Automatic annotation (TrEMBL):
It comes from Saccharothrix variisporea. Residues 181-201 are annotated as: Disordered. Residues 81-156 form the Novel STAND NTPase domain. This is Novel STAND NTPase 3 domain-containing protein. It holds the Pfam family nSTAND3. Residues 181-199 have a biased composition (Basic and acidic residues).
């Protein structure tokens, strides 16, 4: 239709059709209407499923793009916007272009800030909003075709499982919750296993494109509160009364009220529905749950002594907005999603997810979602289910995803089984004619790590060493000797060399990588820190316990001086520092260091994770050096916990009485 309309316009414009003057005027009006209608038809016809496109100035419903509801008012659905202190920063970032990311706690006001800045400074832009991770590539293609467009990604964590995309030449405005952002930060890279690094790289490929990151505090500043007091709105006035305990935005969104309603619920089935939805998100499932899946999940949360009410009324209770604002369970499309405020509140305290929940999720989810659930299951000691997840992905020929979950299995304590799975995954992948060389090398890297000297005394470094040499050679041929991937592969080679008692060569290799990485990437780069850690490990082996303790202490102090000290890296440094101090018979200092390191390990990986159990053994060894009377009972409890978490035949369990001295 559109080409025909344009042809008619051309004919009229060039007077090849002879019409009376009044007809010409009428024809222009008709053509204008027809042209407008035709363009609308063409746009609708070309708009992919799962992408919403609208002019920014026409976006009149903030709730539709993710802003939390507020209590109803005769004046407006939402309170007037109170400019936040970071508003000028968002403005400057949008005007500069690129990828703008606003980070903050749930209900801190991230989405409202982003929405208002977009409306004020980009009114003529086209807003392109993908509704699912799968729609992201289409959204970016559409944005590139527009002269002025902004891609809207509220709750960015929902898009982290998307296939790699090209962000160049597109203005992006996104929000993400603080703990979701920090979980995949590059600050944690130095001590990730290769499989975990692979997962983190895939998940945060989006973060690598961020050009402007703006942090928004949940609690309002004095200036923000002062601006709010000048606004005539009862909802804001009521929220200001509680600013000593809660943020203004979270009170307006009814976050604290919803949390209390859930905890005090009289409807056992309704509370179970909310609990199931919250745990699903904590287990790594970020997509809306279908009603059928939610119905299956909630059964694990209904107390056996209760006679729950009907499903329909319970679901209605869970989705009922409090004060017409947010609800505990938010309908999204054809499914339901737990209110993120409840998720964050639950994650802030110790929690346990029922085994039935893990089983159901691992049997139902697929692809990137299954990878995330598999990793989270590994942190919660559900190792049989982690292996099931890896097998499901392998059977679906999703080799990279399967290797990531296999790495999670090894990281949690089943290194031998993980290595067997990775070998099978690599063999299966190499039979594929479309296997990408980078993917193949990633699989080989994971296999080297799991096969070899992952932890001292665990693994088979002799078998891993030729694989590690092959990995370095292939990375060098593909990318050159100074590429990051090549240098990381050389660190893996150093670990296998040291594991086969070639400790001086291991130290020399690690030292060379430190020098290269400092020159190429800087002192604070994750590769440099990883290489320094490896130097500490093999300096201790070559020069003795005291030298190793001094080097680990220096490294830990350096990390602590950074603006955002990486807790994972710092924990690993302290664990190894404590072990070296024990080896040097400096037991009192070792106990001090390891007491804190065990606490940090438990917070990072959970009480039943292999790393935490090994940290506890290091702590017991230090306590034994000062003749602490609690050692026998602590040792007995550790054996019980190792047997329960890892099994009676696991090396950590079998060697629990001998103590550990482990680089990690």
């Amino acid at each position: 239709m559109l080409p025909g309309v344009l042809a008619l316009v051309s004919n009229i414009a060039t007077n090849t059709i002879s019409l009376p003057d009044e007809w010409v005027a009428a024809s222009w009006v008709a053509v204008g209407l027809l042209l407008t209608a035709s363009i609308v038809v063409e746009v609708r016809r070309s708009q992919p499923t799962g992408v919403r496109i609208a002019r920014v100035r026409d976006l009149n419903d903030p709730v539709a793009v993710g802003v939390h509801r507020a209590a109803p008012s005769s004046r407006s659905p939402l309170p007037p916007f109170v400019p936040r202190d970071r508003f000028p920063d968002v403005r400057d970032a949008l005007q500069a272009g690129g990828f703008v990311l606003i980070v903050g706690d749930s209900t801190a006001g991230k989405t409202r800030l982003a929405y208002e800045a977009m409306r004020q400074y980009l009114p003529r832009h086209t807003c392109v909003r993908p509704l699912t991770p799968e729609a992201l590539p289409d959204a970016l293609r559409i944005a590139r075709r527009k002269r002025h467009a902004v891609v809207w990604l509220d709750d960015l964590e929902r898009y982290l499982g998307s296939p790699p995309v090209d962000w160049d030449g597109v203005l992006v405005l996104a929000t993400i919750r603080t703990h979701e952002r920090d979980d995949l930060s590059t600050r944690h890279d130095p001590q990730r296993s290769p499989g975990d690094r692979q997962r983190a790289r895939a998940g945060r490929a989006v973060f690598d494109a961020v050009t402007h990151e703006i942090r928004l505090d949940r609690m309002w500043s004095d200036d923000e509160v002062a601006r709010a007091r000048t606004v005539d709105d009862d909802r804001i006035a009521q929220a200001l009364a509680g600013t000593s305990r809660h943020g203004v935005a979270e009170t307006i969104a009814a976050g604290p009220q919803l949390l209390q309603s859930w905890r005090d619920a009289r409807d056992a089935r309704g509370a179970a529905i909310v609990s199931a939805a919250v745990d699903a998100r904590l287990a790594g499932h970020h997509r809306p749950l279908s009603e059928d899946l939610l119905r299956e999940l909630h059964l694990a949360y209904v107390p056996e002594t209760e006679r729950p009410g009907p499903w329909g009324s319970a679901l209605e209770w869970a989705t009922q907005p409090v004060q017409a604002t947010s609800s505990m369970l938010e309908p999204v499309g054809s499914g339901y999603l737990a209110f993120d405020y409840l998720v964050d509140a639950t994650a802030a305290e110790p929690f346990t997810i029922p085994t039935a929940t893990w089983q159901i999720l691992i049997d139902h989810v697929e692809g990137a979602d299954l990878v995330e659930v598999g990793w989270q299951a590994s942190f919660h000691g559900q190792l049989d289910l982690v292996e099931r997840a890896a097998r499901r992905l392998l059977d679906a020929d999703e080799h990279t995803a399967a290797s990531s979950v296999a790495a999670a299995l090894g990281d949690a304590g089943r290194s031998e089984r993980a290595a067997e799975l990775l070998e099978e995954i690599l063999d299966r992948a190499e039979q594929s004619s479309s296997l990408d060389s980078v993917v193949r090398l990633g699989l080989l890297e994971a296999l080297v790590w799991e096969t070899g000297e992952k932890y001292a005394g665990l693994g088979d470094p002799a078998s891993a060493l030729p694989l590690a040499r092959r990995l370095v050679a292939e990375h060098t041929a593909l990318s050159g000797p100074t590429h990051r991937a090549t240098l990381f592969a050389r660190l893996g080679l150093a670990r296998q060399l040291g594991g086969t008692d070639e400790v001086e060569e291991a130290l020399a290799t690690a030292t060379d990588v430190v020098e290269q990485s400092r020159r190429l990437f800087g002192e604070d780069d994750s590769l440099t820190l990883s290489a320094r850690f490896e130097v500490c490990v093999w300096s201790r082996a070559v020069h003795g316990e005291k030298a190793g303790a001094e080097q680990f202490a220096d490294l830990a102090r350096y990390v602590e001086t950074q603006d955002k000290a990486d807790p994972v890296f710092l924990t690993q440094c302290r664990l190894n520092l404590g072990a070296a101090l024990t080896g040097a018979a400096e037991f009192t200092d070792a106990v001090t260091v390891l007491t804190d390191a065990v606490r940090m390990s438990s917070e990072l990986w959970g009480n039943d994770h292999q790393k935490t159990l090994m940290a506890r053994q290091l702590h017991i060894d230090a306590l034994a050096g000062i003749d602490d009377p609690s050692v026998p009972e602590l040792q007995r409890q550790l054996e019980i916990d190792c047997t329960r978490a890892l099994g009676p035949d696991h090396p950590v369990t079998l060697e629990a009485m001998r103590g550990w001295d482990l680089p990690t």
